[in-house]
Amino acid sequence: MFTKVHGKELSYNNLLDVDAGVKLMEEFKNEAPTFAILKHNNACGVAQKPTMVEAYLTALAGDPTSAFGGVLIANGNIDVATAEEINKLFCEIVIAPSYDEDAITILQSKKNRIILILNDVELPNKQVRSCLNGILVQDKDYITDTKEHLSYVTNLKPSEEQIEDLLFASKICKHTKSNTIVLAKNKQLCASGTGQTSRVDALKQAIEKANTFDFDLNGAVMASDAFFPFPDCVEIANQAGITAVIQPGGSIKDELSVNYCNENNVAMVTTGIRHFKH
Questions:
Q1: 3-class SS string, the chain
Q2: Could you tell me the CA-to-CA distances from 38 to 175, 176, 227 in Å, in that order?
Q3: What is the pLDDT of residues 165-222, one digit of tens each?
Q4: Strand 244-247 versus strand 181-184 pairing type
Q5: Cα separations in angstroms, 56 against 78, 181, 237, 260
Q6: How do 181-184 and 70-74 pair as beta strands?
Q7: pLDDT tier at 277 (50, 70, 90 boundaries)?
Q8: Distance in angstroms (rounded) separating the CA atoms of residues 97 and 109
Q9: Of 41, 109, 40, 116, nearest in space to 78 by CA
Q10: Class of residue 88 by CB neighbours under 10 A (exposed 0-12, middle 13-18, buried 19+)
Q11: What radius of gyration do the chain's Cα atoms show?
């Protein structure tokens, strides 16, 4: 899968983080420059911008604290400008489909940093993991939410810009530990709540984290990997400035959240698809 250019041996945990990074970035293949920073299998920074250096710096701004010692992955070529910025950060691994020759030279200045070229290979269609005294095998979640999946369930319809942010957030949500809430704005991950036992807790964690890094959530969007059986999440999100929501739908009490959104000028779309990362 990779051509290893530089660095130490990949550890067990390194490989799990690389796996998570590759699966996330597969969602953005052949799109505009996109950069992600992962820590412990979850994205702490993701951004899509006109240039790779902008995408990297915007992703880093999402959580510069967690980025320390993280895994970095790009969906396109890493040039010198991007490499110079990356080199200011202590990171374990850098992954990209290609690099400028001078960019590799810059990144090699840290002797233990692992530099991987991601080759164009097809990933398996099955996922396998150990469980009890056997294994579980399931089909890969190959569905990427697109505009064609969206049902517009509120009176207020999201703008084209909001739809782009909603789909961007949904891609990240799919690859974040459930229960999760993802907040995004201008194709930048503002914050996420990861692996929580309560969806409300996941949302509160995301809002608190966004506030920690001085994000203005007014006009931001929210993605959830499961439906809302109660309107509490959309109410908390609205109070934080969220103006559009994407979620699977399918609760017998969907109308409670829809009604709240209609009463408070929040746009909501449903996909009919649940992405649970367990």
A1: CEEEEECCCCCHHHHHHHHHHHHHHHCCCCCCCEEEEEECCEEEEEEECCCHHHHHHHHHHHCCCCCCCEEEEECCCECHHHHHHHCCCCEEEEEECCECHHHHHHHCCCCCCEEEEECCCCCCCEEEEEECCEEEEEECCCCCCCHHHCEECCCCCCCHHHHHHHHHHHHHHHCCECCCEEEECCCEEEEEECCCCCHHHHHHHHHHHHHHCCCCCCCCEEEECCCCCCCHHHHHHHHHCCCEEEECCCCCCHHHHHHHHHHCCCEEEECCCCCCEC
A2: 11, 10, 26
A3: 999 999 999 999 999 999 999 999 999 999 999 999 999 999 999 999 999 999 999 9
A4: unpaired
A5: 10, 22, 27, 37
A6: unpaired
A7: confident
A8: 20
A9: 116
A10: exposed
A11: 19
Instruction: Work out whether strand 181-184 and strand 189-193 pair parallel, antiparallel, or are unpaired.
Output: antiparallel
Take residue 133 and report the two structure tokens written for it. 């005294």
| Half-sphere exposure in the Cβ direction for 114 (13 Å, CA) | 21
In whole angstroms, how far apart are CA 19 and each of 9, 72, 132, 257, 276?
Answer: 16, 12, 23, 35, 17
Structure tokens at 100: 């400028």
* Helix 199-212 × helix 232-240 angle, to 10°: 10
What is the model's pTM?
0.96
Residue 14 in contact with residue 114, Cβ under 8 Å? yes
- At 153-171, the pLDDT tens digits run 999 999 999 999 999 999 9
- Location of structure tokens 């961007």: 168
User: 């945990």: which residue's tokens?
Assistant: 13
